[in-house]
Amino acid sequence: MGFYFEKYEHRRPPEPVPHNPTIELIWQSLAVIALVLGANYIYWRWTSSLNYDALWFAIPLAMAETLAYFGLFLFAFNLWKTEDYPQLPAPEKINDCLKPSPDNEDRPIRVDLFITTYSEEEELVRLSIRDAKKVAYPHAIDYRIYILDDGRRASMQALCAEEGVGYITRNNNVGFKAGNLRNAMEKTHGDFIVICDADTRVFPTILSETMGYFRDPEVAWVQTPQWFYDLPEGKPLAMVWSKYAGRFGFKAATLLEKVVGPIKLGRDPFVNDPQMFYDIIQRRRNWANASFCCGAGSIHRREAVMYGALNAYGQFVENEVHKHTHDIKSRKIRKDLGDAIRTQVAMDTELTPYKFHVSEDIYTSIVLHADPKHHWKSVMHPSVQSKMLSPQDLQTWMVQRFKYAGGSLDIALRDNPVFKGHLTLPQRIMYLTTFWSYFGCIWNFVFLIAPTVYLVTGISPVSAYSTPFYWHFMPFIIATELAFMFATWGVAAWDGKSSYLSFFPLNFQALATVLRGEKIKFHVTPKQRQEGMFLHLVYPQFAIIVLSVAGLIAGFSKMFLGIPMDVSGFLINVFWSINNIAAMLPIVRAAYWKPDDDQESATV
Question: Total domain count for the chain?
Answer without folding.
Answer: 3
